[in-house]
Amino acid sequence: MESVEVFFWSKATGTFLISSALLYIAWKKMKNKAPKKDHPPDTVIVHHLGRGPYAPSLTPYGIKLETYLRMAKIPYENEHGSASSKKGKYPWIEYNGECISDSQLCIEYLNDKRGIDLDRDFTVMERGTARAFQKMLEENTYWAFALDRWVYNVWAACKAMKVPTLAGYYVRRQVRNNTYAHGIGRHSSDEVYHIMELDLKALSDFLGNKKFLLGDKPCQEDCSVFGIIGNAYWQSFGSPVESAVKKYSNLCDYCERMKQTFWPDWDQCITHGHTKEATK
Ligand SMILES: N[C@@H](CCC(=O)N[C@@H](CS)C(=O)NCC(=O)O)C(=O)O
Q1: Which of 60, 69, 244, 265 is the most buried (most CB within 10 A)?
Q2: C-beta of 89 in contact with ligand 1 (< 6 A)
Q3: From the CB of 174, is ligand 1 less than 6 Å away?
């Protein structure tokens, strides 16, 4: 090839790559921009992906946040869609014009703004224990569940959640990368399921025959436990996670009890396996 031709093609390829990168960055920025809408004052606007086939959100953190808003009796409205937070995650909230990302930071922000403490009746030891269980589930068990759904059983999950194949490849890659960085993704699937089993056993042993995590009265951390375990209980689509959770009758009863207590409108908030629109 002539050197002029080589120069032309290198320049064309370079221009194409740079413009594609710029377009991608612009698209990402647009996608992450908070929609500018007028919202009622003192009402939380919850942004998340949408209602699930068998639970009120497609994500455990969506179930967690909405359960908290109900437990704390805070007025809220849902805005379902693919606009992620500035941190690139779901869910996130808008409150009186402010945007807050991360379900836990949203909860702490609202507690602070509205003077709420759902754990006020518990001792420091109980509060510490509840936080330890919350963090075990969110920072460890969650990733085992993510591997089960998005790596080991990705095509069954895509079918059950109506996720297009291309998006399935993208999410699988993301979860592989994220779990590799976390560490759990470096283990074999047998080892991952073993880790998950030990977490579920620890939770079941601690819950015993209590109604909620700390006793007869629900605590703030129950929202996280319900988000993670409830999502696995109702939305594992027959994967090994489903049988692992269902092995513990107290975890199943717990999910049903949380649903009964905080979600009297549950049936309106799910799509019944995509057979109906969720009406709430
Ligand atoms: N610590 C975050 C976790 C949220 C989270 O990981 N959400 C997932 C859905 S379950 C997500 O947005 N994933 C998209 C991504 O990681 O790019 C929270 O509590 O909100």
Answers
A1: 60
A2: yes
A3: yes
Cα distances (angstroms) measured from residue 102 to each of 2, 67, 141, 179: 55, 15, 18, 19
Give residue 244 CA to ligand 1 midpoint distance, Å: 23
> Which residue is closest in CA terms to ligand 1's atom 16?
89
Cα–Cα nearest to 174, from 149, 192, 191: 149
Determine phi and psi for 45, rounding to 5 degrees.
-100, 115
- The Cα 179–Cα 238 span in angstroms is 22
Residue 60 Cα to ligand 1 midpoint, Å, equals: 9
User: 206, 80, 234: which is closest to 145 by C-alpha?
Assistant: 234
Give residue 208's identity as a one-letter amino acid code: G
Tell me if 31 CB under 6 Å of ligand 1: no
- In this prediction, residue 38 carries a pLDDT of 79
What is the 177 CA–ligand 1 centroid distance (Å)? 14
Q: CA–CA separation, 159 vs 167, rounded Å?
A: 12
Residue 78 forms beta bridges with which residues? 46
For each of the domains in the chain, give its residue range(s) and CATH number, in order of start. Answer: 44-114 (3.40.30.10), 124-269 (1.20.1050.10)
Residue 25 binned pLDDT confidence (cut-offs 50, 70, 90): very low
Residues paired with 46 in a beta bridge: 78, 93
Peptide bond into 41 cis (omega under 30): no
Measure 1 CA to ligand 1 centroid, in angstroms: 50
- Tell me how far apart the alpha carbons of residues 116 and 73 are, in angstroms, rounded to a whole number: 10
The predicted-structure confidence for 38-47, as pLDDT tens digits, reads as follows 789 999 999 9
CB of 68 closer than 6 angstroms to any ligand 1 atom: no
- Tens digit of each residue's pLDDT (9 = 90 or more) over 159-169: 999 999 999 99
Task: Give the number of other CB atoms < 10 A from CB of residue 167.
Answer: 11
CB of 88 within 6 A of ligand 1: the answer is yes
